[in-house]
Amino acid sequence: MFDLDGVLVDSERMWDEVRQAFAARHGGTWRPAATRAMQGMSTPEWATYLVTEVGVRLTPAEAAAGVIGEMAERYAEGPPVLPGAVDVVRAVASRYPVAIASSSPPVLIKSFLAATDLTDVVEVAISSEQAGAGKPAPDVYLLATSKLGVDPTRSAAVEDSTNGLRAALAAGMAVYAVPNPHFPPDPAVLTHVTVLRRLSDLPGALPTP
């Protein structure tokens, strides 16, 4: 199970830039805690946060549509795929069933899969929008493993952020962390997972099926 933002695409900073600029245009006041708070949230959750905590003068639905629209425009130029990410997904998929369990909206997940030609490789792609609750709740991972027909306790997740790591741990999965250098995860959470220096180390770290 791969997370998307920060693991396969270098988009965490893009989300942050778009949300901050959007908030500034619509009456919001950005606080440093907002960036980490929204990492892993589902679309309804972060859109509500923008309104209730940041002060954006729109409805959550309007905030979500505006931010996702701007992200889609950036993705239209080509998703910011991290170096080697596609090769790693293909290498893992040659040995195990592979899924994406992401907080990104479905339109951006589909854009990534189409741009990287991974649509037929990734068997299941789930957004936390479809799962009911965003990370750190385990819902997106539990739904993804259910649709893949596998036991979460016999599955592995690859994450980069604190909330993502917590979600995978709560689902009972083996967890591999590729820490995001721009938004380093909580060191206390890292003590419960396998930490990789880079994503390309993942195939060699996985057990033989």
From TrEMBL:
Keywords: Hydrolase. It comes from the Bacteria. GO terms for molecular function: hydrolase activity. Gene3D superfamilies: HAD superfamily/HAD-like, Putative phosphatase, domain 2. InterPro entries: HAD-like_sf, HAD-SF_hydro_IA, HAD_sf, PGP-like_dom2. This is HAD superfamily hydrolase (TIGR01509 family). It comes from Saccharothrix texasensis.
